[in-house]
Amino acid sequence: MNPYWLTCLHVAQLMTLVPHEFGGVIVHARSGPVRERWLQTLEQLARHHGLATPLRKIPSGISDENLLGGLDIEATIIAGKPIFRPGLLSHCDQSLVILPMAERVEAGTVARIAAALDHGAIQVERDGHGERIACAMGVIALDESIEEDESVNPKLIERCAFYIDLDSIAWHDLPDAKLDAEFIDLDRENIQERVEQITLGDEQYVALVGIAAQLGIISLRAVQFAARAARYLAAMDLEWHESEPSKEHLERAVTLVLLPRATQLPNTTDETQAEDEPNPEPDTEENEEANSEETSSRNQETEVLEDQVLEAAQAAIPRELLDRLTQLALVRQKNHSAGKAGASQLSHQRGRPMGSKPGMPSGNQRLSLMDTLRAAVPWQRIRQVQLKSSQNPSQPKILIRKDDLRIKRYRQRNQTLTTFVVDASGSAAINRLAEAKGAVELLLAECYVRRDQVALISFRGSEAELLLSPTRSLVRAKRSLASLPGGGGTPLALAIDTAFALAKGSLKKGMTPTLVFLTDGRANIARDGTPGRTQAQVDAEQSAKLASQIKVRSLWIDTSPQAREEGGHIARLIGSYYLPLPHARAHELSQAVLGVLHT
Amino acid sequence: MTRNYPFSAIVGQEDMKLAILVAALEPSIGGVLVMGDRGTGKSTAVRGLAALLPTMTVVKDCAYGCDPKAMAGLCTICSSGAKTKPKTELRPVPVVDLPLGATEDRVLGALDIEKALTLGEKAFEPGLLAKANRGFLYIDEVNLLDDHLVDLLIDVAASGQNVVEREGLSVRHPARFVLVGSGNPEEGELRPQLLDRFGLAVEVKTPSDMPSRVEIIKRRDAFERNPEAFMKIWDKEDAKIREMMANARKKLASVKVDDKLLHDASTLCAHLGTDGLRGELTLLRASRAVAALDGKNKVTRDHLKRIAVPALQHRLRRNPLDESSSATRVQRALDELFA
């Protein structure tokens, strides 16, 4: 049997015992028998603890009306008085909700759920109705992300105490179902009473904070969750009669809450980060690593406790899983990628309808019938009275006036995504990079007006790397631009592949991608990473031909001191607009890009 | 109603606390924007503000909380003179939440559906902006707010008036509120037009030193386990801040700014290249509020230095060649000019 399964069962226990206290759990797993079994056990536990079952689901593209509530037009017309239909969140108080495909939930929806988790209630202000509705719930977020650039919105991860990965458990590693049943024997009320008697000792608080620092966890919410978990674990342990949790309880709390959020593991510090960065983190501001040198509040004893707890806690999670989670958390912390939330929030073909605004429908502005009716409903009686007095013989059933008309609103109909593909190879890279950075920032400043997004891919040595996933946030852009490493060969084929893959993805999301290549076009690393000019050039041409089939606007800025044949050749193959700019300044670059964008 | 964590129990975050108090003391500054990462306690601080505010005298039963002593900026009923000697009542200064997903009718106010459908009457039902008049309007996740609500807010915040016109329903009412926003800059930038409406902007970070971190966790835990007991302890501290605010309010009008300081403010703004006069004006008003909170009669350079970053950092033009954050640039200018 895989011992990690027990950890997953503990999470199910805690989540069903006090859903709201722990916010939620991110369940990373593909749909399959292991996840099914965990969800089944969860459901049984929920029933055992008197939560409403079957557990409700929040669909990922849910509209505000269904989530928060809205005027029920039909019922209102029939009743002749306003009838407000509460949304899904109004039914979630004291329960657990499932969030399928959590990695695809709209940023707006995540924010609404996050607010409910923070306050245990939602403030609804919609359609003439204002009310505060209790909504103390826990979220079971089913994270099915596979691609590297997919992840659950960090806002949600932050508010979910637990993170489990069921993909790391094979079906044949699962114990007999009888074992799960043993976990369903808790006396909820008794535990609730007991937990009030339990507090952490001072050195235990210090140890938890210290462990979080060792694991590179910045947010204090996580530490709070860990302290809470320790208290509940102690309360669940009927053999335990002390007022402080035991060391084992602390260990388990660390396993459940802190370890999955680790951005570094003890004794492996800096290995993950300092691979080949010539200038390690220049910006001390951004470097908020908790300083573990401080001894003022930690004495030898606490440190021993810390190390013991941490070491024991690690034993409950398979090492390779722990390493993977650490990598994931580190990536998240580094580029703060809001998953795909940022991008999908802006797609206009799918996802949450963006509501409507008053206006006349016309060519590209579609009537939003429901919203129009909703705007018309309150006026019905008043208008009918007016009509009667004007002796109009034919009375329509519903009286619609021009003022009622509502048109559908979409985010920016043609969200553009400008991706810079920057050659970071060789010695001249540093200058080019500085200019590319400047150009990206200037373009981002333009985004205010144009609401575009920007991404950055850099290529050098044997890889092309997405340094900045599509964003509109200058803060994030600056962060990822701050440490752009340079040097090495030119893997042009890889760069073209990566850039067009990203462009293809954004096309699917209903965006208009534009690619800007900044390179001297001298490929010398083949697609498989081996050096050699000939093969590299062949590969690059092949990539270019493939890329030419994807309808994406691209601009090829040749940065070599004297314009050369290779670059122009590849650009022609792709169908790029070719622009030799040997000494381009940031300002010229951004102007050139804008020039191409606006044509 | 969940209890709000007491303002005085917040560990550290001095910049944020000062900016919030200054914005509360001097409404003409135009509010405060608190930006920062997840889990830094942004909204905790803003929500703790409600407990620090005094009560205000209002015309009894007025939906807009009009000030009986005011000559202007009154709602149509209060200014019509129908009530020559209106009855008054005390109300707490409102802190109104603008939740995500709010519809326009609830924000601006609209036809009262109930009355319209059941009685056929055309009556206006005031919205959140009416509730927030003379108080605070708090927008959490301000950068996720719908664009067209942002437009409406910018409009109303600029004029101090809310106008609703539809099918013979025509209402105009005062809506003077201090805008308080919080959000995470990682999730998208704020439009400059909206950014500009905020007088002060602070950036909060999670403290990284161990003792503060331990203290925060302990207090949070204590608050959760027994909010009543925790509130009792910190009520005294909150009361001290309330008293400081009350004294500052009395003092504010008489706080003097001498020419040297005016010169300092202009020099700093010129050095940083902030656009227009707004920055300078905000800086002076905020410095005066800091002095008043300090119980001083005259603004010193030190007061100015304490509030310069929040007053100016969101007004700098972006400099693509300068990697450092706006806050750092303001701080650097302060060090260079007023060392």
Please give a structural write-up.
The complex is a heterodimer of chains A (599) and B (339). Chain A has 599 residues and is an alpha/beta fold. Chain A has helices at residues 4-17, 33-48, 64-68, 73-79, 107-119, 154-159, 177-182, 188-195, 202-214, 220-236, 247-258, 300-314, 319-335, 341-344, 369-376, 380-389, 429-450, 474-482, 492-508, 533-547, 565-574, 586-597; strands spanning 24-28, 56-57, 69-71, 84-86, 95-99, 121-126, 129-134, 137-143, 162-165, 356-358, 406-408, 416-423, 453-460, 463-471, 512-519, 553-558, 577-580. In chain A, strands 14-13-12-15-16-17 form a six-stranded mixed β-sheet, with helices on both faces. Chain B has helices at residues 14-25, 42-49, 76-79, 104-108, 113-119, 128-132, 147-159, 192-195, 210-225, 227-252, 259-272, 278-294, 301-312, 326-337, and strands at residues 32-36, 55-59, 88-92, 95-97, 109-111, 124-126, 136-140, 161-166, 169-174, 178-183, 200-204. In chain B, strand 8 (161-166) and strand 9 (169-174) form a beta hairpin. In chain B, helix 10 (227-252) packs across helix 12 (278-294). Classes of the chains: A alpha/beta (599), B alpha/beta (339). At the A-B interface, helix 3, helix 5, strand 6, strand 7 and helix 6 of A face helix 4, helix 5 and helix 9 of B.
Question: Care to give the gist of this entry?
Answer:
With 599 residues, chain A is of the alpha/beta class. Chain A has 22 helices and 17 strands. The termini of chain B are far apart.
